[in-house]
Amino acid sequence: MLIRFRRGWELPESAATPEHVFLKRRALLKTALAAPTIAAAGSILTGPAFGQTEVAADDPTAKLYPVKRNERYVIDRAITDPSQATTYTNFYEFGSQKNIWRAAQNLKLRPWTVRISGMVEQEKTIDIDTLLAQMPLEERVYRHRCVEAWSMAVPWSGFPMKALVDFARPTGSAKYVVMQTFQDPGMASGQRQFWYPWPYVEGLTIAEATNELAFLVTGLYGKPVPKQNGAPLRLAVPWKYGFKSIKSIVSFTFTDKRPVSFWEQIQASEYGFWANVNPQVPHPRWSQASERVLGTGEMVPTQLYNGYGEFVADMYKGLEEERLYV
Ligand SMILES: Nc1nc2c(c(=O)[nH]1)N[C@H]1C(S)=C(S)[C@@H](COP(=O)(O)O)O[C@H]1N2
Ligand SMILES: [Mo]
């Protein structure tokens, strides 16, 4: 086992976690007697570089991949090593550390249904495999920029979110689509941390959700997306900070009211609705000017809209009064 100690450029967890949550957790940890697990909190334990990208035994979708890559979306950097992208993950449902990939194997993939509700012609629930059979699967290499200032570039498989919106048939009054992650504290130990506002919620405007870049992910590196990366269905909106890319989605609700997302409920001053990447707008507690590339540790400049301005900048014209970059 490789034990990697935190380096100077890595954000201490206390900087990347809303302060009051951190303090509460500290208080709890102090009184808890679970010392052996807590000992790991000061360092990041990285697992062996095998196993984590293998297809989960209970994932029936392996035969769907690989799918054809869409070459329209090109990036200027190397693809992140799979052993990094699948072991350094944010999935608070399974713990607030980055090394939760083993804990995430507890995620139960089937049965899995997706609920479509709210301002739609007809509400419906569809089983994930029926949905996948109807969606146009392709592969896209996208950058991913976490609000904590690390980044990666990975080949996701999935389908344009627009295909899901078309399938849902929202009515003319819908302005937003709200997505939710599963809620199952028995399965996901992180959801027993009652001070978080579970379930994880995220939202996009209809314009964003139907932007060609908005992608619903079902695969990674030419295989089903691993549990720790948000199986069986997660979002990728690469021009926004990573927390917008909600994992393990169970519902899409169409509404005319802007939702308050999970992180916004925790700390609205630091994690807003729009969360578009902008190197010139610092997070209240750290700079967003550059990012650490996962795997190489290289520091590179962050780009406006994470380099995707040509696809998305127009959507924000006339919205200059909004907090577009928090
Ligand atoms: N349900 C859920 N979705 C989530 C998160 C989470 O904790 N729970 N973390 C977010 C954050 S902060 C990031 S950076 C990305 C990380 O995706 P990855 O682990 O596949 O790199 O997932 C996002 N989606
Ligand atoms: Mo993130």
TrEMBL record:
Reported cofactor(s): Mo-molybdopterin
Pfam families according to UniProt: Oxidored_molyb
Ranges of residues in domain Oxidoreductase molybdopterin-binding: 109-263
Alphabetically ordered keywords of this record: Metal-binding, Molybdenum, Oxidoreductase, Signal
Similarity section: Belongs to the MsrP family.
Cited function: Part of the MsrPQ system that repairs oxidized periplasmic proteins containing methionine sulfoxide residues (Met-O), using respiratory chain electrons. Thus protects these proteins from oxidative-stress damage caused by reactive species of oxygen and chlorine generated by the host defense mechanisms. MsrPQ is essential for the maintenance of envelope integrity under bleach stress, rescuing a wide series of structurally unrelated periplasmic proteins from methionine oxidation.
Protein name: Protein-methionine-sulfoxide reductase catalytic subunit MsrP
Species in which this protein is naturally found: Skermanella aerolata
